[in-house]
């Protein structure tokens, strides 16, 4: 017996599910977000937000709240036992530019990121059904029927699995994951509040790479209550079983760092794991999609997992809305086409960073982790009609840069659920596109774009580019974007 219906059922209220639900809500698409747990995830796990993800959060209208909840990454401080030593910067810091206004990673505990996203979802009229575990699902040509442990049944046009690395949905579909152990040695992660007299300052990210029994990193976290740190400890013994109890965490710190057990005032959250890298064999099965950790599992090195997951949701949301409004079903094929290769590449990056030594001085992270270079030039959605472009020129499929020209800020023009038709440094006749959710803007010549006409997707990538608008209406008709009105 079906107890409720929706257009999109999202399983899992982590960052992926919350971004997807919020973006669907602002598009006016009916969605239901369910979560097996009784509350949002409480820990710091995915604590780094990369520049591209900050752009997504700007578009969603939550970046100011994210900045208020976080801080810039601290510099690293290398310890030899009880003695502090050299400092170094793990990040290759860069200055903001007109094209890239958010240049460096931002440190925000995952729990705070989720709180901000949840607040935005509620502002948009959405909600999370907590304590709702999935028991099973079936699908047919018209939709998906999901059964829950509380006996309720939901019928949806589409279902998105955002339920993590141990995804119930992925297992129910029989979709395998291909992967490897990045590191056979176990790790423990914990959020620890320490006393005011604990002998480590809040100004640095402290590392003891040569600590007995395994290296330790101790990163200060923004907290209104103060003196909160994320502990990440590795074990040299592959057979070790991490003690995740508060007493076990305090003992580990006392054994490996200058802190004593009495310096641990509170242990808020703990987890143990072995670093893995794995990729789902496919990201779609009929009317069901995999996103976030349900589709790809990363080593935490390089801060790539949460960021890749957020961008999965950002890629999928506008496509679901368009198809539900009448665009051809084949538009949804481009989700896997675009995101699976990206996830595979990023898995390689995080694995390389981990194996290079995440606690070693000199291990620095630059452009490869910022995700600004991700693009979809080979996508079926991409049309580049210009010829003889210079090397390095912006092309269809690339991220659309920010900038201010002619009294217009581009990111503000792009912000929202619409497409943007942008004329740069030229004044061609543009097609009239009434009721098609395509905003038109004209700006003077701008070196980040060159000159021409650019159609920017709702997720901030150039879909179509030309010297004039010739062929644009045909492109929109082929994709069904005009017919969909989205």
UniProtKB/TrEMBL annotation:
The keyword Acyltransferase does not apply. Keywords: FAD, Flavoprotein, Monooxygenase, Oxidoreductase. Its cofactor is FAD. It comes from the Bacteria. Coiled coil: none annotated. The keyword Isomerase does not apply. Pfam families: FAD_binding_3, Rng_hyd_C. NCBIfam families: PRK06184.1. This is FAD-dependent monooxygenase.
């Amino acid at each position: 017996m079906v107890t409720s219906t929706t257009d999109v059922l999202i399983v899992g209220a982590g960052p992926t599910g919350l971004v997807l639900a919020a973006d669907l809500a602002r598009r006016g698409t009916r969605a239901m977000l369910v979560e097996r747990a009784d509350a949002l995830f409480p820990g710091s796990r995915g604590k780094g937000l990369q520049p591209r993800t900050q752009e997504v959060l700007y578009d969603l209208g939550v970046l100011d709240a994210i900045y208020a909840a976080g801080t810039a990454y601290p510099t690293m401080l290398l310890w030899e036992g009880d003695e502090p030593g050299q400092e170094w910067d793990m990040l290759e810091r860069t200055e903001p530019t007109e094209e890239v206004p958010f240049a460096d990673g931002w440190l925000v505990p995952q729990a705070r990121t989720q709180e901000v996203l949840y607040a935005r979802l509620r502002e948009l009229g959405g909600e999370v059904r907590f304590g709702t575990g999935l028991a099973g699902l079936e699908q047919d040509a018209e939709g998906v029927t999901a059964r829950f442990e509380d006996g309720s049944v939901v019928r949806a046009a589409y279902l998105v699995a955002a339920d993590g690395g141990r995804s119930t949905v992925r297992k129910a579909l029989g979709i395998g994951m291909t992967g490897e152990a990045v590191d056979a040695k176990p790790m423990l992660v914990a959020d620890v509040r320490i006393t005011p007299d604990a002998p480590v300052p809040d100004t640095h990210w402290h590392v003891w790479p040569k600590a007995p029994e395994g290296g330790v990193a101790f990163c200060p976290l923004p907290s209104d209550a103060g003196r909160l740190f994320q502990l990440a400890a590795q074990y040299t013994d592959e057979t070790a079983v991490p003690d995740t109890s508060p007493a076990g965490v305090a003992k580990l710190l006392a054994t490996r760092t200058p802190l004593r057990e009495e310096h641990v005032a509170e242990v808020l959250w703990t987890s143990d794991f072995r670093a893995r890298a794995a990729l789902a064999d496919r990201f779609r099965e009929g009317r069901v999609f995999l996103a976030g950790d349900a589709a790809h599992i990363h080593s935490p090195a390089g801060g790539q997992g949460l960021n890749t997951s957020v961008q999965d949701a950002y890629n999928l949301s506008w496509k679901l809305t368009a198809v539900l409004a009448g665009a051809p079903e084949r538009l949804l094929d481009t989700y896997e086409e675009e995101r699976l290769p990206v996830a595979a590449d990023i898995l390689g990056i995080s694995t390389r960073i981990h194996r290079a030594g995440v606690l070693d001085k000199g291990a620095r992270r630059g452009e490869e982790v910022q995700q600004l270079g991700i693009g979809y030039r080979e996508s079926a959605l991409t049309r580049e009609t210009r010829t003889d472009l210079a090397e390095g020129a912006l092309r269809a499929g690339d991220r659309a840069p920010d900038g201010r020209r002619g009294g217009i800020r581009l990111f503000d023009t792009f912000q929202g659920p619409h497409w943007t038709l942008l004329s740069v440094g030229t004044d061609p006749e543009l097609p009239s596109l009434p009721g098609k959710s395509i905003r038109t803007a004209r700006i003077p010549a701008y070196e980040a774009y060159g000159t021409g006409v650019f159609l920017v997707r709702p997720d901030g990538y150039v879909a179509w580019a030309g010297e004039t608008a010739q062929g644009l209406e045909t492109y929109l008709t082929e994709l069904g974007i005009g017919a969909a009105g989205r």
